[in-house]
Design a protein that fits this description.
Strand content: under 5%
Distance between the termini: 48 Å
Structural class: mainly alpha
Number of strands: 0
């Protein structure tokens, strides 16, 4: 059985140091050339990354190359430096839904308060998993001005989105010591 994402990230941090690892993750998140970083990507994501990168070529449609950005964001859940904040905020608007979802999870892990306003549009993302991640993240970092968007999300057609939006409103109410449910 392979190593977990956390183990892979920490092993990569041991190889490179925190600053170098975070800088390389940021570069990938900012649409850096994944083919120049194949070894690094394999360190971050293991055999699945190696297989994925072998299936692709630099001539492929760039939209097919979102996995390295997902893996870079996922590594930032486990190995962090605040220098990554701007790249994570930008990744919330990535064209690939898996990158948007993972960026929201990074926001949760590191309580990136500056993400609040960028999370709100994700509550109406076409992909339910992104809407769920955005609601969860707002529960952690959202402010009172984000509550109306979460209240709208309570009317979502996906039960899991509704449940996460309700949980986020309860969490924000407790954290901000005010009733945001109504």
């Amino acid at each position: 059985m392979g190593a977990t994402p956390a183990e892979l990230a920490r092993a990569t941090e041991q190889r490179l140091g925190t600053d170098e690892m975070v800088a390389r993750c940021v570069a990938l998140l900012q649409h850096g050339d994944p083919f120049a970083e194949v070894e690094f990507i394999v360190w971050l994501a293991g055999a699945s990354a190696e297989n994925e990168m072998r299936l692709r070529t630099p001539e492929d449609d760039p939209s097919l190359l979102y996995w390295p950005r997902v893996w870079a964001a996922r590594a930032l859940v486990y190995v962090w430096d605040d220098a990554a904040i701007p790249a994570v905020l930008d990744a919330l608007g990535d064209r690939a839904w898996r990158v948007r979802e993972m960026a929201a999870k990074v926001v949760i892990s590191h309580e990136i308060g500056a993400a609040g306003d960028r999370l709100v549009p994700l509550l109406s993302d076409p992909v339910p998993r992104v809407r769920i991640a955005a609601a969860r993240a707002l529960g952690v970092v959202g402010e009172a001005e984000h509550a109306p968007a979460l209240r709208e999300a309570v009317a979502d057609d996906q039960d899991q989105v509704v449940a996460r939006a309700e949980a986020a409103l309860r969490a924000m109410s407790r954290r901000l010591d005010r009733n945001l449910l109504d």
